[in-house]
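Bit of a strange request maybe. I'm writing a small parser for structure token strings and I need a real example to test against, not something I typed by hand. Could someone generate the tokens for this chain?
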Amino acid sequence: MGKAGVGIVILLLAGCASVPKGNLAGHSRVTVHREGDRVSLDGVKGWSFGDKASSVHAAAETVMRAIGNDVSYDYLVGVSGLAFRMQVFKESLCPSSPHSRCGYPCTERSTQALPWDSTLFQVKSGEADKVNEVRKAIVASIDRGVPVQYGNEEDGVIVGYRKNGNELVCFNPWKDGGKKTYIEKNWPWDVLVYTGPKMEVPSKQALAVGALEQAVKMAETEEAGKYYVGFKAWQVYIDTLTALDKADKKTRNDAQQGNSWIYECLVSYRNTASRYLREIAPEFDKEIAQHLLKAADLYADMANRILRDETHSTVAIAPYAGAATWTADMRKEQIARLNKALPIERDAIQQIKLALKLMDGSSARHR
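Reply from user aminoacidic:
Good idea to test on real output. This should exercise your parser:
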């Protein structure tokens, strides 16, 4: 269970009562529509990156809500630990830096939190027999009214099929802002078929302890594969932006898109961290909850007053390529905001540490 100690183990054992299967089944909010060789699920909605930055968790939320389970995006991003992670690719400001599956992985606990089991398929397009088996699994899931999650660079949901599954009808935030369905022509890297309700899921309190421990561990971890993580990633990010003033134009242009996405995700994730901490605080004693709420306030302040504010959106501070010229003054302002935000990040992690320390004693009980 990590450094929080035996007290947390006791807390988890007290908080892991099984949840009856019937409570996890939900009531479907979709209808299966058939017209010739076309089958689609009516009642499923897509999302945009502006709405939800982590497509992996947004896709899972979309499927769960479609089948009647109110598992929120904020909860999944929070419980996964992604809401607390800062990460930058070692070689550049790569747009992959904020992705939940890159570097320090942030999907295991959110999968545990889902009320349904799933089967993961990872089949290459050239493996014809295996591809056919996956297509059959997708068709069967759609036929029973359950959308299918899939992923390439980003995740989307399959909400229909044509020609016996040879054409897949999907929502993906890459396409039309996630608002319209389209035919996915590229075979997915991953296909996740949700198979049915779990017999039980860990308690919200038990999952929260794991997320909080992960938040601290990530902050203090410097590297995860090809990425810098935590406080180290903050400093590397600041240093990289500073060095761009002396770089050539191509290097600056190459960095602009990734910089904007990293910055936008940082703001989005910290806002989610604030909301998640407020959601889980009532699961703990008052003294523990106070530290979690202080951390929530710090993250909200960082995201909405320091990294951006009422008159400066994230894209105004860190514009996307093609949207605006990325000037030295813009970078200077962004660096100043990051330098102001980093001490707040440290303070928020300290509040989480204090909460975990209290859990390591007799006070670590459900409120």
